[in-house]
Amino acid sequence: MKQIVLSAIFILLFGLTGYSQGPAQQAPQGFDLVREGIAQGKIDTIVYASKTVGASRKALVYTPPGFSKNKNYPVFYLLHGIGGDEKERFNQGAPHIILDNLYADGKLKPMIVVLPNGRAIGNIMAPDKVQAFATFEQDLLNDLIPFVEKTYPVKKDREFMTIAGLSIGGGQSLNFSLGKLDQFAMMACTGHPDLIQTPEGEWWSVFSGTRPYDGNYMCNTGRETFLLPVEWEKGFSSILRKALPGPTVVEKKGLQPETNYLTGNFTYGQQYNDPTLDHSWVFVRMPQQKFHSIREGRLSIQPLAVSIEEAKSPAVVMCRQQRARFSVETQLSFTPATDANFAGATLFQNEKYQFLFGKTLIEGKENQVLYRIEKDHEQVPASQVLEGNAGKASIKIKVEGDGNQYNFSYSIDGKVSKILVENADASIPSTQVAGGFVGTMTGLYATSNHGIDKLGAM
């Protein structure tokens, strides 16, 4: 039986910045309840041809009470969150009732409200559906807005066009409008932090955020949850002042953090003394069969006939990449019998975006090799033949990350390290390139169905 013998050590660093704005007061009671005896607007479903995605797409349009085709109206594009479509606002709330009540109270001037599907894709089940949120910019500007302006009596000057959204819709509103200031005069975006007041009167926020490592907001650590104090200024909440780093541990009276928390600078060693893995380890989907065991300080992984490039459950256990700067190393004992055998480490965001670093056979010889998998392109940045006894020996493999770069090295004797690849592009498994928001995973993997094209060397 082929085994991987592993002992992992992680050395990581930390940094965070962020800023948020929250509501100062609650909405009045009954703001979203139907009132009798007031004028009501109308909701229509429109279907427009999207040249951007090559398909017909739907949107909802609210026209105000007393709507007339003989008048021209301002237009408001209202975007949804990451899990929704054009109907989300109605599934989770009552925007038409809220608008009707605001008109009845004389708090709004008549406008047309457009609720689009902010995920611009023909097939919503396609694997690139996350990218569709960015594609929507072209769909909005080149397809939907021209259709609305042709179909409804709207004012086309920038002073009468507004865009706003929740969550990812807020991000879309910000990104689209800042790039089109000649088209949008007003923009608003909202997130969803939880604001909590303690019995002592202090305000705290629990919110999601990311820790990008360069000016392009690249992020390999995924979306995380943070706790920070809230300061109120003129009715607005300031959670973290601009350009200030987030603290590793929040100073709060009575707060009792765990002494073994994996935050800040830390070293973590997994010695495999317990018969089960701790909760820092995860699988890719639910395992269909048992493939790993722990005995005498060794984690053994039985290779499965499943590739990590398939949308299945491969023989892999993984931990999160928790810092932009880190190093991870493990001792690997593995002898491949054919070129379909592979064992080693993975830096994994999903099946189509990852690195594989380990041992396999190439042209009948054992090699230490690095594979870079990017969408439909599989490349071999480097490989090294392990001559003589080196191919049979236990080998130490190490990955070091520093922002947008990974270094891959190995050692036969445990003393002298050899760099196989230096300054590899770490953005491959990033959220911005690969999609998703769970972050890059560092994993230990084995397969008997290794099907990467080994001739596609760069």
From TrEMBL:
<feature type="domain" description="Beta-xylosidase C-terminal Concanavalin A-like">
    <location>
        <begin position="271"/>
        <end position="450"/>
    </location>
</feature>
<keyword id="KW-0732">Signal</keyword>
<keyword id="KW-0378">Hydrolase</keyword>
<dbReference type="GO" id="GO:0005975">
    <property type="term" value="P:carbohydrate metabolic process"/>
</dbReference>
<dbReference type="InterPro" id="IPR000801">
    <property type="entry name" value="Esterase-like"/>
</dbReference>
<dbReference type="InterPro" id="IPR023296">
    <property type="entry name" value="Glyco_hydro_beta-prop_sf"/>
</dbReference>
<dbReference type="InterPro" id="IPR051795">
    <property type="entry name" value="Glycosyl_Hydrlase_43"/>
</dbReference>
<dbReference type="GO" id="GO:0004553">
    <property type="term" value="F:hydrolase activity, hydrolyzing O-glycosyl compounds"/>
</dbReference>
<dbReference type="InterPro" id="IPR041542">
    <property type="entry name" value="GH43_C2"/>
</dbReference>
<dbReference type="Pfam" id="PF00756">
    <property type="entry name" value="Esterase"/>
</dbReference>
<dbReference type="Pfam" id="PF17851">
    <property type="entry name" value="GH43_C2"/>
</dbReference>
<feature type="signal peptide">
    <location>
        <begin position="1"/>
        <end position="20"/>
    </location>
</feature>
<protein>
    <submittedName>
        <fullName>Alpha/beta hydrolase-fold protein</fullName>
    </submittedName>
</protein>
<dbReference type="InterPro" id="IPR029058">
    <property type="entry name" value="AB_hydrolase_fold"/>
</dbReference>
<dbReference type="InterPro" id="IPR013320">
    <property type="entry name" value="ConA-like_dom_sf"/>
</dbReference>
<keyword id="KW-0326">Glycosidase</keyword>
